[in-house]
Amino acid sequence: MVMKTNTTHTTNTTNTTHAHTVGAAGTVVAENPRLDFAKAAPKVFRALIGFDAAAREGLDPALVELIQIRSSHLNHCAYCLHMHTNDARKAGESEDRLHMVAVWREARHFFTPREQAALALTEAVTRVADAGVPDDVYAEAAAHFDDQELAHVLALIFTINTWNRVALSTAKAAGTDSR
């Protein structure tokens, strides 16, 4: 967590202003020079929130966080990874499982077969450009989720990938969410 002080420094380089705040222990934290997506496109932002909420309906909250954490790993989204690991902890997720999400295939005993199927599907959909969604991965997920649940798992994967892209595109800094 970065604690801000009231000290702000501004530098001007090639007609671009960058503000920096001196945080805890004298570290310099660059303030985000990119747009605030929620303010710039509030209707789109609210639609994403609605899509996200609808996707979660009927899914186990622990599974929701595992999917969001794994996708955020794959997309290198520190902002979302920080947010969802904290949300998972608040929901009672163990540190052991949180540490194993990135290497779940090597630590399968930490995850149920249903969670493993969801994590494999998360990886395939998140990396869809690499090889599509292989039939065996889809079939394994379909064996663990009924059609409605599977549709919600897919929708959740879509939403976290969208949120990752919003956070990465707008240079959201990990640890700055207000939740």
Compact description:
By secondary structure, the protein is mainly α. A hairpin with a 4-residue loop joins strand 2 and strand 3.
Give a verbal description of the structure.
By secondary structure, this protein is mainly alpha-helical. Helix content is 58%, strand content 12%. It has nine helices and three strands. The chain has a three-stranded antiparallel β-sheet with strand order 1-2-3, with no helix packed on it. Strand 1 and strand 2 form a beta hairpin. Helix 3 packs antiparallel against helix 4 and helix 3 packs across helix 9. The longest helix has 23 residues. The protein is globular, with a radius of gyration of 18 Å.
SSE map:
Blueprint: E1 4-13, E2 16-23, E3 28-30, H1 37-40, H2 42-56, H3 61-74, H4 78-90, H5 95-100, H6 113-126, H7 128-131, H8 135-144, H9 147-169
Antiparallel strand pairs: 1-2, 2-3
Number of strands: 3
Work out the strand percent: 5-15%
The best one-word shape is: globular
Question: What is the first-to-last residue Cα distance?
Answer: 13 Å
Uncertain residue ranges? 1-24
Helix content: 55-70%
Output mean pLDDT. 86
Strands across the major sheet, in which order? 1-2-3
Q: What is the gyration radius calculated from CA atoms? A: 18 Å
The SSE string, one letter per element, is EEEHHHHHHHHH
Largest sheet: 3 strands, antiparallel
Structural class: mainly alpha
Secondary structure tally, helices:
9
